Amino acid sequence: MCAPLISGGEIVGTINFARGDGEPAFGDGDRRRATTAARMFQAAVAATDLVTAIDAERAAWWGALEASGQAVVVTDLERAERHANRPARALLDAADDAWPSLDAAIDGGEATRRLTVRAAGSDAATDITVTSAPLPERPSLIVSILSAESRTAALAPALRRLLTEREAAIAELVAAGQRDHEIAGHLHISPNTVKHHLKSIYQKLGVRSRVELAGLLLR
Description:
- By secondary structure, the protein is of the alpha+beta class.
- It has three domains: about 1-65, no CATH class; about 70-150, Beta-Lactamase; about 155-215, Arc Repressor Mutant, subunit A (Orthogonal Bundle), CATH 1.10.10.
- Helices cover about 45% and strands about 25% of the residues.
- It contains eight helices and seven strands, in the order ββαββααβββααααα.
- Strands 4-3-7-6-5 form a five-stranded antiparallel sheet. The protein has a two-stranded antiparallel sheet with strand order 1-2.
- It comes from Actinomadura soli.
- This is HTH luxR-type domain-containing protein.
- Keywords: DNA-binding, Transcription, Transcription regulation.
- It holds the Pfam family GerE.
- GO terms for molecular function: DNA binding.
């Protein structure tokens, strides 16, 4: 006795049953049980195929997100899970306290918020615009688009008048996150000359560190 396995309206296989010599022939009850077993097997195979298809589609979509140049973070509120693609990870991992700031930015669901983050060991600030919205068909899934823009350091006219042209250029490069040797290379001077100018800049502007100088310029 056999029961057909049907998928998509077509017979794709059978389940075969047999009895040994001397055993009773299969009856209607046996055939009903065989049909039920075949249908259960078909349902299990269909479910497995569906899961496989969903996983393949998910992998394809995620692969596309990973290859994208746009920073994207997907937050699943029900599962308490977050997935950030490669550009988003690079952006957020490079800055101190960026992930907690992102949490606060998307907690409200649909919104556009701005974060200011600083790279570890740097005075340079980066503004990140976070635009978040829930998926209409699944509100617990929040998609956030991140756009980053390095903040341009520029001396206010009142501050610029206190400094020489060389000092103003050095101050702006410090606020942009450059170290002494980088500033020296940019302006074609020695690192010691940069240090000398920095002492003068600190004194004239009333600051004590690169961080305070950057904060003054980036207000």
